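Re: the request from the purification team.
They wanted to know what the chain is likely to look like in 3D before they choose a buffer screen. I agreed to run a prediction and write the result into the notebook, where they can find it.
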Amino acid sequence: MNQFPQGVLDSESKALSTVTSTMQDDSRPLVLLVEDEDGVRRSLQLLLAGKGYRVKAFSAAEAAIADPASRDAAILIADYRLRDSDGVRLLTALRQRGWLGRAILVTGFGSKEIDRAAHAAGFEAVIAKPMRHQDLLAALRLPTA
């Protein structure tokens, strides 16, 4: 026997459905985040999710390339130095597979050579570590070409 009046259950079901559909909102931009440092990766995931982005995070380039969901990403945020590759090679591999999204490189090993290679590969911005969150958010707001 049902302990609740019919209207109570219906409105609770509708509320749950609304919350679920909001949580699964695919209209938010998908960010492909590739960062091998666990703490940095988790911090960026939380920051980006809090700013309205969906985030697919990986600790290695090969895993990111292999995941079919990577093709749907609007933005790549990649660390330069990864365990199995680097951010420039990662972007190059994604471009070879037809990916056309925007890209931002983060690095603790900044140099003019890395900057040139990153921009030549198609990165819009190179952000030095330790990274200030506002620098990343500003780079995400850069107008697209």
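For the purification team: Residues 79 and 106 are 5 Å apart (CA to CA).
Please add any questions underneath this entry.
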